[in-house]
Specification:
With about 325 residues, the chain is of the alpha+beta class. The protein has 11 helices and 9 strands. The strands form 2 sheets. A 7-stranded mixed beta sheet has the order 1-2-3-9-4-5-6, sandwiched between helices. A two-stranded antiparallel sheet has the order 7-8. Helix 1 packs across helix 2, helix 2 packs across helix 4 and helix 4 runs parallel beside helix 5. The relative contact order is 0.16.
Length: about 325
């Protein structure tokens, strides 16, 4: 990370500490936000900083949580995050899932009473670096209508899978079940830009490219009813199963200040050599076979999930993070108020 970006990291950490997060929690949160910027996921980065601070100020995020960990078995644990900022709850959870997997082969950790935690891939990377496979789920505020309904209820509920690849670039699939993630729509609204057609409907059920109308309306899922089914699956795994809000109960962090979000997360990690000791060799063969396939016109290389984000990260490490004027105003306001 270059000097200017390191300074930005320090500024973000300073803001979180100003809003009463203890130094360790401010560091975890700042790291996650800067990481989102470096991988190009700007809707999960600095654009959300003021939102987190607003919720802390309104006592909807607990800056000094009494996080409770319950051991269910040697492999399974549950966490009551006590309305902590989501970054902290998720960081504790993935580290515990990793620890459990290293001991027994499998680690499963459920989290309730948490909040938005940024990018799932940020946590998947931690598991993959320990030679573990991982699956991560989290639910979100209403944005997508169940198939057959005209009303938003499911979140954009990302699905994340990570695996060692046998190279320095991990295989990490981190995808929203919607055509576009909500963070990108909010960013488009703030920047007075449009979203692509076919990604959302307005509140009257008509296609729209206006991000404000999209936020008031319905986001479209990937693959029609299949995407809606994936959203429902994630709602069960991270909401119903964990004891968190579900079925439209997760509060929108930007506009709903009636109470804490009570987001749920589920982290599953397991050793890559549980069934085959030569997993890495087999994984390398798998990737090599697919990369050798005939390419479509204009395609230079077949990339596996995680490669594009890795290349962006490496490139952006050497550059200054670009901060839009409205985000810069947020940062200046947070430092003063």
């Amino acid at each position: 990370m270059n000097t200017k970006n390191k300074k930005l990291h320090i500024v973000v950490k300073k803001i979180f500490k100003k809003y009463k997060l203890k130094s360790e929690h401010a560091e975890i949160s700042a790291k996650a936000i800067i990481n989102a910027e470096l991988v190009g996921a700007h809707g999960h980065g600095l654009a959300r900083l003021k939102m987190y601070c607003n919720r802390i100020k309104k006592k909807l995020i607990n800056p000094n949580p009494q996080i409770k960990i319950k051991k269910i078995s040697s492999s399974i644990s549950s966490i009551d995050a006590n309305n902590s900022i989501g970054f902290v709850a998720a960081d504790i959870a993935i580290k515990l899932a990793i620890k459990n997997a290293q001991k027994t082969g499998i680690g499963l950790v459920a989290v309730k009473n948490s909040g938005h935690y940024g990018l799932s891939s940020h946590y998947a990377e931690q598991a993959v670096k320990k030679n573990l496979l991982t699956m991560i789920y989290t639910n979100a505020p209403p944005a997508v209508a169940p198939h057959g309904s005209s009303k938003s209820l499911f979140g954009t509920n990302p699905i994340c899978f990570g695996s060692p690849s046998g190279s320095k670039i991990p295989f990490i699939l981190d995808t929203s079940i919607s055509m576009i993630n909500r963070g990108k729509i909010r960013l488009a609204e703030r920047n007075n830009s449009k979203i692509p057609r076919g990604f959302a409907l307005d509140k009257f059920g008509k296609p729209t490219t206006d991000p404000k109308k999209a936020l008031e309306g319905v986001q479209l899922p990937i693959a029609g009813y299949r995407g809606s089914g994936f959203a429902w699956m994630v709602d069960i795994l991270s909401g119903v199963l964990t004891g968190s809000n579900h079925a439209g109960g997760v509060k929108d962090p930007f506009i709903d200040f009636s109470g804490p979000q009570n987001v749920g997360h589920l982290f599953l990690t397991f050793k890559s050599n549980l069934f085959e000791k030569n997993f890495i060799r087999r994984m390398k063969d798998n990737i090599k076979t697919i990369k050798k396939l005939p390419k479509l016109k204009g395609v230079k290389e077949i990339l596996y999930p995680g490669e594009s984000k890795f290349f962006k990260y490496k490139k952006n490490l050497k550059k200054n993070i670009t901060i839009k004027e409205n985000i810069q105003r947020d940062i200046e306001w947070l430092l003063k108020n």
